Amino acid sequence: MPDRPTPAGINSLPATPPASATPTSGTAVRSRRSLNLRTRTGAPGDTTGLAAVRDSTLQDSLAADQAFRTTVKYSSKDSTIYAADGQVVELFGDANVEYGDISLKADYIRLNYTTNEVFARGRYDSTARKLIGQPVFKDGGDQYDAKEIRYNFRSKKGKIQGVVTQQGEGNIRGNSVKKDAENNMYIRGAIYTTCNLATPHFHINASKLKVVHNKQVIAGPFNLVINQIPLPIGLPFGFFPFPKKKDIGVSGVLIPQYGEEPNGRGYYLRDGGYYWAVNENIGLQFKGQIYSRGSWGVGTTGAYNKRYRYSGGFDLRFARNRSGDRVDKTQSPRNDFAVTWSHTPQNLGKRSTFSANVNISSNSFNQFNTADAQRYVSNVAGSSVQYSRQVGQYIRTSSSFRVNQQFGQTDPRTGIRQNGKTDVATDVSFGLNQIAPFALKGGSGKWYESFRVGFDFNGAATVTNSVNTNRIDTSGLGFRIVGTGARLRPRGDIVRDSLARADSIRLGLIRQNGALISDPNLVAFNLANMPALLRNALVTGRYSIPISLPNIKLAKYINLTPGFSFNGDIYRKKLNYTYLGGDSVRIDTLAGLSTVYNFATSVSMNTRAYGTVFFKGKRLQAIRHTIAPSVSLAYVPNFSNPSFGFTQYLPIPGLPEYRRYVSRYRGIGGASSGGTGKANAIVSFGIVNQLEMKVRARNDSAGQEFKKVSIFDNISLNGSYDLNAPVFNLSNISLSANTQIFKNISFNFAANFDPYAYREINKTTTGARQFERIPVYAIRQGQGLARLTSAQVYVSGRIVPKGADKPKKPVPGTNDVTMRAINANPDLYVDFNIPWSLNVSYSFGYTQIDPSQSNIIQAVTLNGDFSLTPKWKFTVQSGFDIKAKRPSLTTVGINRDLHCWDMAFNWTPFSGSALRSGNYSFDLRVRSAILQELKLSRRRSFYDRGGF
Question: Which of 361, 385, 680, 721 could form a disulfide with 365 if both were Cys (CB 3.0 to 4.6 A apart)?
Answer without folding.
Answer: 361
